[in-house]
Design brief:
By secondary structure, this protein is of the alpha+beta class. It has one domain (3-138). It has helices at residues 3-18, 72-77, 79-92, 94-99, 127-135, and strands at residues 28-29, 39-43, 46-50, 56-57. It has a four-stranded antiparallel β-sheet with strand order 1-2-3-4. The chain binds zinc ion. Zinc ion (ZN) is lined by residues 104-106, 114-115, 117, 120, 122.
Length: 146
Amino acid sequence: MTSQQDDRIKEFENEVRKRGGNAVIDWKESNSPESRGILFADVDGVTLMVYLDGLISIPAVRTYHPPRYPTPIIAAVLATELWTMQKARDDAQPETAKSRVTGHLGPIVDPNLKCRIEECRCQKESQEDRQRRARGGYNWNPDRCS
Ligand SMILES: [Zn+2]
């Protein structure tokens, strides 16, 4: 674990505690070529990742916006809520959901950067595309709002 990862996890756990949640989280360091050194955790059924540089991300979630989600930490703390909203939108527009270049159709993303949904585009993508997909939700871009 890098010191940036350690700092980010402490920050995340403090935020969880502040909101009365359970901050005991089992982070696992990836050995997969797609994500070596990145920490993965399943938090209430949604995968969180912490990159070596300390970036925390929710690989399944495409996008989030201020003011409710002002920082990646807050978004990560509210990951299940973000996932539930995305799932409702995706279920209403399944074809659009399948065509997205970020996010996933399933909430759990494994160290190979694939979710567990067969119809999700990640299943057939190259390693580079999956790495880009995993990072997708972090950079807030108004063009991607929908
Ligand atoms: Zn997927």
